[in-house]
């Protein structure tokens, strides 16, 4: 029995066990399998492990998407999450090459995936408050927002949650060093039903300009001398 003799339900079940590349390669073999590949039912969940994967043409983005995860774990994450003024020219060039990759993809999600229920971002150092704000506005059913080591996220995201996160049930901002205790308290006050977690966030040293950092270091040395 040839695979194309299986009914659509069986083919969808078969495709569901394959990763994105395998699905795409199988879809190239005939029109029937391509049609199955393009079925929205197959694309309610998407997981990505690097920004490069976002540029591949091996998945379908649309209203059927319910759960999205972009988790980037590598030494390069540390480079992108380093304050810009501390990076050398090589590191700056590397970061610039994909600075807008995740943000542009998320804006595409805003426009095409209004039924998104959960979003997890880890190590996405270039994602900004504005990007999360647009997601909250355009995906009103979002129930879970988990941000880890997204260093450009600040209290503006927390404020957006209180204004536009009516459906939100879970919020994680772990290792987001530019989130403050005041911002977290605001969320707890205005949205008490949200399960909020902020491991190693508000107690971390936020990004500050070199000049201000130097002033703080000098003041600290004077205190030690006294």
TrEMBL record:
<dbReference type="InterPro" id="IPR032675">
    <property type="entry name" value="LRR_dom_sf"/>
</dbReference>
<keyword id="KW-0833">Ubl conjugation pathway</keyword>
<dbReference type="InterPro" id="IPR001810">
    <property type="entry name" value="F-box_dom"/>
</dbReference>
<dbReference type="GO" id="GO:0005737">
    <property type="term" value="C:cytoplasm"/>
</dbReference>
<dbReference type="InterPro" id="IPR036047">
    <property type="entry name" value="F-box-like_dom_sf"/>
</dbReference>
<feature type="domain" description="F-box">
    <location>
        <begin position="9"/>
        <end position="46"/>
    </location>
</feature>
<dbReference type="InterPro" id="IPR050648">
    <property type="entry name" value="F-box_LRR-repeat"/>
</dbReference>
<dbReference type="InterPro" id="IPR006553">
    <property type="entry name" value="Leu-rich_rpt_Cys-con_subtyp"/>
</dbReference>
<dbReference type="Pfam" id="PF12937">
    <property type="entry name" value="F-box-like"/>
</dbReference>
<protein>
    <submittedName>
        <fullName>FXL22 protein</fullName>
    </submittedName>
</protein>
